[in-house]
Amino acid sequence: MRRAAPPAEKQFDAFRASSLYCPRCQRAQPVDERLLLILPDGELYEYVCQFCWTQLGKRKVEQERPALII
After folding, report:
1. 54 lies in a domain?
2. Cα–Cα–Cα angle for 53, 55, 56, nearest 5°?
3. pTM of the model
4. What is the domain extent for residue 58?
5. 38 domain-assigned
6. Are the C-beta atoms of residues 48 and 35 closer than 8 Å to each other?
7. Residue 52 falls within a domain, yes or no?
């Protein structure tokens, strides 16, 4: 018996990069994820190369707002 695949939108709900292309190193390198900002609607992270600390990208994690009952 084969299991049904989860819906496509749920598969990549919490995507994180493990390596990205670094223009300074001229190849794909492992990255570190650092918290950059805490925003009212979520958190902003940046990806940096583990070897030369060049910023390679950003990721925003949005948090669900609780429903306001008035």
Report:
1. yes
2. 115
3. 0.68
4. 17-62
5. yes
6. no
7. yes
Query: How many residues does this entry show for the chain?
Result: 70
For the chain, the average pLDDT equals 83
Please, which contacts does 55-64 make with residues 24 or more away whose CB atoms are closer than 8 Å? 56/20, 56/21, 56/22, 56/31, 57/17, 57/20, 57/31, 59/16, 59/17, 59/33
The structural domain count of the chain equals 1
11-35 pLDDT per residue, tens:
666 678 899 999 999 999 999 999 9
Task: State phi, psi for 33 to the nearest 5 degrees.
Answer: -105, 120
Task: Please count the other Cβ atoms lying within 10 Å of the Cβ belonging to residue 23.
Answer: 10
User: Could you tell me if residue 33 is inside a domain?
Assistant: yes
Q: Whole-angstrom Cα distance, residue 57 to residue 20?
A: 8
Nearest to 21 by CA among 47, 60, 39: 47
Read off the pLDDT of each residue in 59-65 and give the average, rounded to a whole number. 82
